[in-house]
Amino acid sequence: MQSSRAGLARVIRPALWLAAFLPVAPALATSCDAPAWPVVQQYIAAWNEHDVLAAGTTLDAQVSYFSTSAATTRQGSQVVLDVVKGLTGLIPDLRWRVLGTPVQACEQLAFEWEFSGTAQFPAQDGKPAASRPVSLRGASFVRVEHGRIVQLADYYNGLTMREQLAH
């Protein structure tokens, strides 16, 4: 029962977050200083170029980051950059693409995505080197202030990710 409540909370929380800013979208759109989408596009491009430094230029130093895998919110750009470095190192041909059209209300953005590639596992503990295709769909919620990502939340099936990345 506790597990299904946690799963439901993971689905409802982002929906409530999105619903909280959608009703004011017209008001925000007229006073928007810097839309979020161009910044998020730069962040995604940095992932696809496997450029950790470029990803860092899109992040506020104190960015708040939540991911399903960690199941907690962590602070600081280095946390996000460690994820970029780790996944692009493990999946050298990783591609991250946006599915559909993002939903935006000025500085806040929600979008569905898919990343895919081939995970490369080195020989370790008597196991031979191996490679395995990886494909994962998810959704992200982003808030941008002054041209930098200040809040980033990634939601996806953590079990699927762990299964695909198990060696």
From TrEMBL:
Signal peptide from the UniProt entry: 1-29
BP GO terms, sorted: polyketide metabolic process
Superkingdom to which the source organism belongs: Bacteria
TM annotation in the entry: none
Signal in keyword set: yes
Keyword entries, A-Z: Isomerase, Signal
A GO term, aspect molecular function: isomerase activity
Protein name: Steroid delta-isomerase-like uncharacterized protein
Organism placement in taxonomy: Bacteria, Pseudomonadati, Pseudomonadota, Betaproteobacteria, Burkholderiales
